Amino acid sequence: MNDLVARARKVRRALRAAPDGFDLSAIDPGATPGLPREGDKLWSREQMTVLGDALAEQQERLYAAAQAGTDRRRVLLVLQAMDCGGKDGTVRSVVGALNPQGVRIKAFTAPTPDELAHHFLWRVSAALPGAGYVGVFNRSHYEDVLAVRVRELVEPAVWKRRYDEINEFERIQSADGTVIIKFMLHISYEEQRARLLKRLDDPTKRWKFREGDLDDRDRWAEYQRAYQDAVTKCSTGPAPWYVVPADRKWYRDWAVANVLLAHLDELKLAYPEVKLDLPGLRQRLADPGEHQVNNG
Questions:
Q1: CB count in 10 Å sphere of residue 52
Q2: How far is 87 from 175, CA to CA, in rounded Å?
Q3: 192, 30 in Cβ contact below 8 A?
Q4: What is the 3-state secondary structure (H, E, C) of the chain?
Q5: Rg (CA), the chain
Q6: 196 vs 37, higher pLDDT
Q7: How far apart are CA 52 and CA 29, in angstroms?
Q8: pLDDT, mean of residues 143-147
């Protein structure tokens, strides 16, 4: 376990986006930062079983402590990516290893008229996980400085002030016990093309295809600049950004699992101490007493 956590911490360091000097264009979407020399596709997939078990145990401690009222912390994973970047796949492969009873997943789509009538963080606040839960945002409040910016849905002055609003919002949530971990799943223009074509070629995947995806693809450079600014301006101590090269799906899953494990281990989660009369309870279980069932 110590070796597993030590490797997870190395991967986390390799993927963390520091505000100073961060350059998205310098990150190769096909790279594998932090992967050991012996690591490959098969090895990484085998490791996902080990990582999944470790994550599940940490999650159980988080949930148990909250149920006992001894710890009110919770975890929020924010997943952002260009279309076909692998958000759904990451949820299946990484979050799927957790107990669904303690997981809350929210996929943010275009805001409704009611949501648009409120501050852009209103619907996000309503979806935050409760104590002991792992929350997952499939897309998030960052769409309001990404898609909203690129599609020119509001004036520049509006989306520009949202960086500070997001940072303050995340600072408050962190101070209240929410561990915020943000992932940008970084795919290449060429890989997105291959995945979009695969959707068109597969009748079982065509339902996921939207022509609007191609409109966003036409604005690829603008989206890259928007992601550059979002990560640079909003990667903070309370809510760091991790940029995960995502052209290789097996690496993406392995990397996200490692970063999550590093954060959970850092919380020093523990099962709650429960006061029970253990000798008395064991005696009751050992002695059927008057209520013995006669199966004869």
A1: 18
A2: 27
A3: no
A4: CHHHHHHHHHHHHHHECCCCCCCHHHCCCCCCCCCCCCCCHHHHHHHHHHHHHHHHHHHHHHHHHHHHCCCCCEEEEEEEECCCCCHHHHHHHCHHHCCHHHEEEEECCCCCHHHHCCCCCHHHHHCCCCCCCEEEEECCHHHHHCHHHHCCCCCHHHHHHHHHHHHHHHHHHHHCCEEEEEEEEECCHHHHHHHHHHHHHCCCCHHHCCHHHHHHHCCHHHHHHHHHHHHHHHCCCCCCEEEEECCCHHHHHHHHHHHHHHHHHHCCCCCCCCCCCHHHHHHHHHCCHHHCCCCC
A5: 22
A6: 196
A7: 24
A8: 98
Q: Which residue has the tokens 């020119």?
A: 152
Give CA–CA dist 169/279, Å, rounded.
49
Instruction: Assess whether pLDDT exceeds 60 at residue 240.
Output: yes
Using 50, 70 and 90 to split pLDDT, how confident is the model at 150? very high
Q: What percent of the chain has pLDDT over 90?
A: 88
Q: How confident is the model at residue 212 (pLDDT cuts 50, 70, 90)?
A: confident
Which superfamily, per CATH, for 2-271?
P-loop containing nucleotide triphosphate hydrolases (3.40.50.300)
pLDDT surpasses 90 at 38: no
pLDDT higher than 70, residue 293:
no
Q: Residue length, the chain?
A: 296
Q: Which residue has the tokens 């001894």?
A: 70
